[in-house]
Design a protein that fits this description.
alpha+beta; eight-stranded antiparallel sheet; 44% strand; globular
Length: 171
């Protein structure tokens, strides 16, 4: 009365589906770098870090949509009012509404401060100033016009640039 399920073919179909999902996500346009009104809609106007608030430099803000209702955003902030020790480690913020991988390390959902170091690392801090990850940044010497901060599509992931230094952000 009921059709017999062949577990082997079911497993093969499931494996094929898993292989096709990344291609399907790319076909739907994920990730998508946000611009204009879409960018302004998701990027916060300011950010709190270690007991202080700073305004977002919207000209140095970037965001990407990683999937339906999945965003990651970053921005530089005006740290002029911050203490020198905070300014030395903190350049901006990263906000993600789902877990992501940053430079090969897992970053949980949340809001974080970040800073690229002169020795080629990206340090990410919780809003209390505790470092949650540190990853090696890469350098893109072929980048024609480096900006203080930007995001670029990188075949299913996103590059977060600070000048020519970058880390890859993926789902």
């Amino acid at each position: 009365m009921f059709p017999r399920l062949n577990l082997r073919s079911g497993s093969a179909a499931a494996a094929l589906l898993l292989l096709l999902l990344p291609a399907a996500a790319r076909a739907q346009g994920w990730p998508r770098i946000l611009e204009g009104a879409d960018l302004e809609r998701v990027v916060p106007q300011g950010f709190y870090f270690e007991g202080q608030s700073a305004a977002t430099q919207m000209r140095n803000a970037a965001a990407a949509q990683l999937g339906p209702k999945r965003f990651v955003m970053a921005g530089l902030v005006d740290t002029a009012g911050y203490s020198t020790d905070v300014q030395a480690k903190y350049q901006g913020f990263i906000v993600t509404d789902s877990p992501v991988t940053v430079g090969g390390a897992r970053l949980p959902t949340g809001a974080y401060g970040f800073g690229f170091t002169p020795n080629g690392r990206l340090n990410v801090f919780d809003v209390g100033g505790r470092r949650v990850l540190s990853v090696r940044a890469q350098s893109d010497e072929r980048l024609q016009r480096p900006r203080p901060l930007m995001m670029a599509d990188a075949r299913g992931s996103v590059r977060l640039y600070a000048g020519r230094s970058f880390v890859v952000i993926s789902k």
